[in-house]
Amino acid sequence: MGERATGPGGWLARRTSTQLAAAMGVLAALALSGSLLVTGAAVRMDQREKAALAALDDYGAMVSKLGSETSLSAERITEADAAWLSAWLSAFQSGPAREARTLEETCRTGRGGAGVRFIRAPVGKPAGLAALETVRGERAGRFGEDVYVVRLGRGVLCPSRAVEVVVVRRPFGALDIAVGRVVDRSGQAWGWAVAAVIATGLLLLVIGLAAAAVARRRLTGAVAEVSRALDRAAVGDFSLRAPETEVAPELTELTGHVNRTLDRLDELLSWLRDSADQLAHDFRTPLARASVRLERLRATATTPEARKLIDEARSDLAQITRSMNEAMALRDGEAWVFESVRLDELAAQAADLYQPLADERGVAIRVEAEPVSVLGVRSLLQRAVTNLVDNAVKFSPEGGVVTLTAGVRGGRPILAVADQGPGFTPAPRPGGAGAGDGRESHGMGLAFVRAILKRHGAVMTVDDGRPGAVVTARFSR
Fold first, then answer.
1. Whole-angstrom Cα distance, residue 149 to residue 183?
2. CATH number, position 462
3. Domain span at residue 445?
4. From 183's CA, which of 15, 201, 258, 402 has a CA 20 to 30 Å away?
């Protein structure tokens, strides 16, 4: 048992080109998505940093202004001071040129930059946006110890949208002050960049899959051409060769090897045909002479026993001649013309051919067929079927029935001939074709039939019909 490929190399070796291209496309899309996430995080951090610097600047401006206006110690601050702080905060909030954008613009467009404030004194009511004090948020230590990133939900700051605010929370004297800036969103330029990257990723994925589909189709076509040439060679037809460069240049080396192998096999088979021709020529003359001499000898024979022996010898010579002719037909290149052959028609023709002989012997021939076709050589398949019917009629008892069946069984075309003769002994003849009970025609005939079916990619089985035998040819297509 061979070793299975393991590790990344083995995994790659088991993948198809389409799977690899799809995997590369997915990895490219993941890489682009990852880069978008990293870039987006970096942009978000930069926007938060800008908002934090602006908030710290706002806090410094507020502290500077408050320090120049009054002393705000806990002992001296009054409710009047708290009311003044509230009015002052409103004026400071809406003062000229304080913000890059107004709160109204931020709520309308979702873009950041607007500032928000909150002040709580020991006495009186607090002023500003209370959520800056109550919503704790996430500490942003890299911008300062008292800097937080706070997410304000819909309706807290803006009626119809949630915003993110960087808040500076620091005490000043007796006051608790929170100053914040709304963080800008990705922005239009960033949105276009994201859309462009996503579109590029999708385009790359589509191009990769399309290229993989084209490559798969090209390779599949090339492999189909190679398989077609090998299938034809498997049944003895070496006229077809695989294209070496037209279909798939990647398979040029493989198709070259296949074609060279087919050329060599064709050469060897040509040599075998020539050798068979020579052997046939060498055998035909002695066989013809022997037949003539036996004929002359029979004319001079004086006893029935001598004439019987001569007739048996002549029958043996005729059998040898017929077997040699059948073997020559199998190897004859001119006979290999492949076409669509109807097995049901062959069965009906064989039944019609042998019906007179069957009537003479008191045997009935029955055909049970449905339309079914195979690719093959009509003349050779006719010989195979007639051989089977000849054996079945010859060895069927008087009153017996020979049944010819053609159809599809298990998704495969089949042709079967069943008789009610003596059948076969369990011990198979060497070579697996005939029987061990001395039935010569069955032995040689089935060997010939088996050879024809093998050339057509079919398998022959011989089963016990109880009584008789059932010879079945199962074709692959």
1. 9
2. 3.30.565.10
3. 337-474
4. 201
